[in-house]
Design a protein that fits this description.
The chain has 9 helices and 4 strands, in the order βααααβαβαααβα. It is mainly alpha-helical. The protein has 2 domains: 91 residues; 106 residues, no CATH class. Helix 1 packs antiparallel against helix 2 and helix 6 packs antiparallel against helix 7.
Amino acid sequence: MNKKKETRYVIDKSAYEKHIDDKVHLYEMLHQIAFLAPKVFGEDEVETLIATIQKYGKAADDMFTTWEIPGRYLVFGEKKDLAGLKEKELENLSAVLVAHDMESMEKALHCLSWDQNYIIQGGSFRMLVDGIFELLALYGSLVRRVMALKNDKDVIRLKKQLDRDEKQIKRMYRRWGVPEDEGVTAFNVLERAVRQKHLIPFEVVAMEESQEVDETWDDDLHE
């Protein structure tokens, strides 16, 4: 008979420490009451003990409120009533490990991106070359216009031409895959956009081709 695998959870550090602090506080209050009780001999001591118990009772009620334990659980003690509290304070260990593995893989892929081999489709390659040529042409044209400036009218015409050039560059952004609301503010922005839209990691293609070969081989075996 297979033993049912026990589900394990992860608790946030601050939530865990709060539970410990609350337990310590409860112990201190109970210990103080146990310390005072044997010393009660007169009315003054009784009143002091009662006041202390009332104070500690209120503190315990306040703590219990923060724990958000359902009242139904106090009556019936059914574990299913703790589902909401469990969802709030705990995370499934398997889910945490999967998320951690994915994050580690993304970091590793980012580190390897400079040495990674990619495949680019012909249309995307021509588009990138065309974009480089357009930028070179715009730069050459801008240099000539700046060198030819002689008066204020030339400056006004240059500004109008620069507005048209900016629209042309924004069209390049869209073709490259750069989000319109982001723009190219740094090299890594452009590099990430081009890689995500136009490049295919060689490992992905090789894996897909390998799977196709395996499927063809399986089909041949079953014919």
